[in-house]
Each structure stands twice: as C-alpha cells, then as structure tokens.
Amino acid sequence: VYDTPGVTCGTADDVLVLPPNDISAVARAVEECDPAAVVIEATGSHWGTVPIDVPFLRQLRELTAKRGVLLVMDEVISGFRVHPGGVQGDVRVTPDLTTLAKILAGGLPGGCLAGRADLMEALAFDNRYGRPLSAAAGIAALEIVAGGEPCRRANDFARELRLRLNSLFSEKGADWVAYGLYSLTKILPNYSGPAPDGDDFRPYANDFWKLEAERDRKLSHAFRQALLLGGVDWMGWGGMTSAAHGEDDLERTVTAFDGAIDRLRADGLIR
Ligand SMILES: Cc1ncc(COP(=O)(O)O)c(C=O)c1O
Known about the structure:
The protein is an alpha/beta fold and 271 residues long. It is built from 11 helices and 7 strands. The strands form 2 sheets. Strands 1-2-3-4 form a 4-stranded mixed β-sheet. The protein has a 3-stranded antiparallel β-sheet with strand order 5-6-7, with helices on one face. Helix 10 (217-229) packs across helix 11. The protein is globular and about 60 Å long. It starts with 8 loop residues before the first helix and ends in a 5-residue tail after the last helix. The mean pLDDT is 94. Bound molecules: pyridoxal-5'-phosphate. The site of pyridoxal-5'-phosphate has 7 residues, from loops. Pyridoxal-5'-phosphate is lined by residues 41, 74, 76-77, 101-102, 111.
C-alpha cells in the first residue's frame, strides 16, 4: 500500500508492490494476478536501500521469461553509473525493457527507454522534438563512460569510503553502519546487529522492514547539518560517489563524519 502525490488510484490499483529478494512472492503474484510486467530498480529501491541479490535477479529473469511477463529494469540511477552496461551489464541479466530516463543526457533534460526490438518497434513514435544539446551532452558522457574506468573509480572509491566509515564508527563506538552497492553508499543509524565483515555485508540480513524503516526526522536533519559544518553534503542517509572524487574528498568525508558524530553526541541526539 502506498500513497504518493500524483499517482492516481487507478494506477495504484493496477500495481502490486512486493518485498525484494523474495522469488516465491513474485511467483505467487504472477500466478494470481497475471501481470503485464514486473518492474524492478536493478539495485533495489531508492538506489539499494535493500540491496537486490544477484541470484534473485536471475530467478526473476527466468520466472518472467517462462511466464511471458515482461521484465522491466529501472536503471535511471544505476545505468552507466555502476558499469557502462548498468547493473544488467555487470551481472548479465537482460530485461525486456530498461528505463534510463535522465541518466542518459549527461545532466541535461533528456530521456531514454531501451529494450527488445519488437517492443521498441511497437512503442516507437515520430519524435520531432529532440534536443540536440542534450543529445550531444549524452553522447559525450557515454563516450567517457564506455571504457568503464570512471565507473570503476567511483565504485572503488565508495568501497574504500564504506570501509573507512565502518572503521570510524567502530573506533568511536557509534552504533552506525555503512553499506551499499557499487558507488551507492547508505548509512544506517541506531544499528544493533553483527559488525560488518566485508563490503558485501548486509545489515539485518537485508530485512526490508528494518532497512526501509522511516528515520527519525530530527536526527536526519541534524545529521545533514552536522556534515555540512564539515564541508560535506549528503542526500540524507546516503551518498553517491563519482569519478571526480579523489583522495582529498575521502579524507574530508571521513573527517566530516567524525565531527558530525561528536556534534550529534554533544546535542544528545545519538549515543
Ligand atoms: C530510480 C528512478 N526511477 C525513476 C525515476 C523517475 O524518473 P523521471 O522523473 O525521469 O521519470 C527516478 C527519478 O529520479 C529514479 O530515481
């Protein structure tokens, strides 16, 4: 059940939201509802708050292919960012359609849907309203990304960042944990569970309800402010790294987290 401004009841009624990484739930829903398509954000929703397991993606591909249900991967955030071929290129699971939207146009307005030729043929329309500037920016960005080096750098940086942050949290005795996929990093505050034992660590064994739980708003706001005082701005409890980040940014970010924890403690907001 969800309630999002702009999503009509009709649309919502036609959509079934399922727990991630649960192939039997998908199998049951396909059996009972005979849907036209299964849509999944390839990293897991909200760029991997509950990271999707690769075996689940493979099972999803098999199940949908067998049942004649389209598999649509949303790679609006992960496309070209995590790998030149997106998550699907990295893990080699090919959906029927891929939404890439604005990630295509190198930061300018533009969009893209890609997929099986017969489906694209059916959807094709005469687009006389292209934006040459967006197309040129997109082509330039894709040429830079094509060899894979920018994605590798961003992913390596994020892995190092998560490692450094988890060491910092442990040194300071803070009950926070950093986790994530590729260049997409999440912080989970008030964490009580086993300590991370590697970068594929999943807090609470990837329990949807614990990872997607609403965060304390006052703490979330204070956390962002505290990081800003250290010169680092994150999008709430998560951040994405890019190929433009370097060693200085890593140090600055870890130092900003160190200071933020001290400030939040001084204000009595965390233990
Ligand atoms: C993962 C994901 N899917 C879809 C969308 C929607 O994209 P658009 O606003 O271009 O339709 C967004 C927007 O940020 C997104 O992050």
